[in-house]
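Design job #97: recover the sequence.
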């Protein structure tokens, strides 16, 4: 167990316990109303070169809420956002909260069957979709569901024209045009129709569900974590305090907004501080680098794959990134060599962060200005220390604490932990025993209270009876100067039980052969650990939050090995 209550030394990393933040702001809507008043006429959201004030977002979300209410959306209903990083995401989220409804964030990469599952599982009453996604996916996905209100919007709606990045057309806008969307209402029309009107006021509590955020479904069907308004407000405060964020900061919203990192580490914390956000529709490294320079962004949190892409894009050599000083990464493991390379080639040190959908983002941070220790045995980079009000421990399969330094499952409780999964009481009971989350992540705590994640339980490889954690092999591969990304999986083997395979992508302008990389690993790893086969790909498959799709790679490897 590690907490500030029983490990006083951690106080040196505590930037000051927050005041009772949920007493000041019991819910996200109250938090927003404070910001709408403070920043009514100031730019609060930059969408490429367009600047939207908090007042405009407040008025537009009022109007949309009125339009939804007129069409039957009520308190407790679920409103699905099937969008990229566009201003309409924030407007839709606020409109839902202004009715006491629940925002459901849907991955824009979901296909028809997957989106249909989310809509049916949450019992969605309304959906806001990008126009192209409506025509290609959502229009069919809503069939046989409870969706009564379908609204579409264009990524071009909140910019004056497509040439919106210093007079140039961003690569992500090339070929985009406004589309007709049969059987759906238009968001801009609805806002215009109800302009100047406000919905009937609602009173929310910390226990009310603010967000349903669906897990990626790596261990079965996706599950909707019920992130409450109290969860959202508390972890917005965690970001603000631990990262020393002030209204003078400018946030680069490079993580997808549908993901818990984008929802809390971008939107919620920006609302709390308040500080302006910078949106760029979807992640494209050259555009992101340009946006950092153009808006002098100071802070961001993204998956390490995003920083790798930024670092390897040619634009990094001409963009001024000096304003970017508060940099964090979460959502996927980080190799120490990548952090060192980014600091050497770009400038800022990437601080580690750890949290899950079920913990409403962070439970552990490397305090701003501190550096992660590296475990000398495994080579793992620490994910940080527990943030305030977190009780974190490492447990065995029976839920008993394991000794310091011993590997087990990370478990945590605190005001950021969701109360469970939507309509899944049995899974909730097994995953949140007595309100404590069993993360499924394997790791350990050192004698100084730093936590380390070794891997996911399900990803462990057993080769000739020996345990192999993919993370350790990947970190070795990433030490090779030509390797950009690496993913390691286990493949059934008739002799060894499982054998280790790896997939890598290479840095631009660098070269290496599979045999060379196997030899590199063989020199640095025990005989049972080094990969017997390494395939070089242009890119490794990832989901939009930057996590490697090991299951897809595992399937490829099994097909190739059969």
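Job complete. Output follows.
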């Amino acid at each position: 167990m590690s907490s500030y209550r029983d490990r006083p030394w951690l106080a040196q990393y505590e930037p000051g316990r927050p005041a009772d933040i949920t007493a000041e702001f019991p819910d996200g809507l109250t938090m927003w109303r404070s910001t709408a008043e403070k920043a009514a006429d100031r730019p609060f959201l930059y969408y490429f070169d367009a600047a939207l004030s908090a007042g405009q977002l407040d008025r537009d979300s009022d109007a949309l809420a009125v339009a939804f209410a007129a069409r039957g959306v009520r308190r407790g209903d679920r409103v699905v956002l099937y969008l990229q990083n566009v201003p309409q995401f924030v407007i839709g989220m606020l409109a839902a909260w202004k009715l006491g409804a629940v925002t459901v964030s849907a991955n824009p990469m979901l296909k028809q069957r997957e989106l249909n599952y989310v809509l049916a599982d949450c019992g969605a009453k309304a959906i806001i979709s990008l126009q192209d996604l409506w025509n290609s996916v959502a229009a069919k996905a809503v069939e046989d569901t409870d969706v009564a209100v379908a609204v579409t919007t264009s990524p071009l709606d909140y910019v004056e024209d497509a040439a919106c990045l210093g007079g140039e057309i961003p690569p992500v806008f090339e070929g985009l045009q406004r589309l007709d969307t049969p059987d759906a209402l238009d968001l801009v029309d609805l806002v215009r129709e109800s302009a100047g009107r406000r919905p009937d006021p609602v009173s929310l509590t910390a226990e009310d569900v603010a967000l349903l955020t669906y897990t990626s479904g790596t261990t079965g069907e996706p599950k909707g974590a019920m992130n409450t308004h109290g969860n959202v407000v508390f972890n917005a405060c965690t970001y603000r305090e631990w990262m020393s964020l002030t209204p003078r900061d400018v946030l680069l919203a490079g993580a997808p907004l549908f993901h818990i990192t984008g929802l809390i580490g971008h939107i919620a914390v920006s609302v709390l501080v308040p500080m302006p956000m910078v949106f760029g529709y979807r992640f494209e490294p050259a555009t992101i680098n340009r946006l950092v320079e153009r808006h002098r962004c100071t802070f961001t949190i993204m998956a390490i794959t995003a920083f790798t892409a930024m670092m390897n894009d040619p634009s990094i050599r001409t963009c001024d990134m000096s304003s970017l000083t508060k940099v964090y990464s979460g959502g996927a493991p980080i190799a120490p060599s990548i952090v060192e390379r980014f600091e050497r080639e770009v400038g800022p040190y990437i601080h580690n962060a750890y949290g899950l959908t079920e913990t409403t983002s962070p439970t552990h941070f490397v305090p701003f200005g501190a550096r992660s220790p590296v475990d000398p045995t495994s080579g793992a980079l620490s994910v940080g220390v527990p943030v305030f009000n977190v009780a974190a421990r490492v447990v065995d399969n029976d839920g008993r604490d394991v000794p310091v330094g011993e590997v087990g499952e990370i478990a945590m409780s605190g005001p950021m932990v969701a109360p469970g999964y939507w309509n899944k009481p049995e899974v909730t009971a097994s995953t949140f025993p007595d309100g404590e989350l069993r993360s499924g992540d394997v790791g350990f705590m050192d004698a100084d209270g730093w936590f380390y994640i070794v891997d996911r339980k399900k990803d462990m490889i057993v080769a000739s009876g020996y345990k192999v954690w993919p993370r350790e092999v990947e970190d070795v591969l990433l030490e090779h100067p030509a390797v950009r990304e690496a993913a390691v999986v286990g493949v059934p083997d008739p002799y060894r039980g499982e054998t280790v395979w790896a997939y890598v992508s290479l840095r631009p302008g660098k070269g290496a052969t599979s045999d060379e990389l196997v030899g590199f690993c063989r020199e640095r790893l025990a005989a049972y650990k080094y990969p017997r086969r390494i395939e070089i790909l242009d890119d490794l498959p990832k989901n939009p939050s930057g996590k490697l799709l090991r299951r897809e790679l595992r399937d490829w490897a099994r097909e190739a090995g059969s």
